[in-house]
Amino acid sequence: MSYTLYFDGCCKGNPGIGSLGVALFRDEEEIWNDCKFIGNKETNNSAEYSALIHGLNYVIENNITDDLIVKGDSQLVIRQMLGEYKVKSLNLLDSYQKAKKLITKIPKIILDKSVEVHDGQATFGRFQNHNVLLLLLNHKQIYNLIYLHFQKI
Prior knowledge:
Oligomer: single chain
Strand order of the largest sheet: 3-2-1-4-5
Strand content: 35-45%
Radius of gyration: 15 Å
């Protein structure tokens, strides 16, 4: 059995109002997803890290110990996690360290930057033609979530 965790974060403005989206698949079946508002002063990169951390926390809390592939469209986050890029921004250092610590708790993990983006919608490999295609990762929907959040305040 294998799992794939997809993550995405975005903000309106940079910095600005931020949100995250994550989805977890077991083999090809989606078993969990979440999308939430994360703050008023997020950058795109901090939102991406928040999404990764949120997804990794779920995997750990639910004792998922089988192979895990992690995919996201942030080249910066994936390459920093792989050690290919240095973390130069002090604003990201804490999130980077949290994510690195979480990754050490997962026995078999692969970080994969293989996401294509078309017309504002994240499209992940072979799932691109499925209706279940991680709609929560559509940036317009995340912006709508942010908008709805502020309508309640």
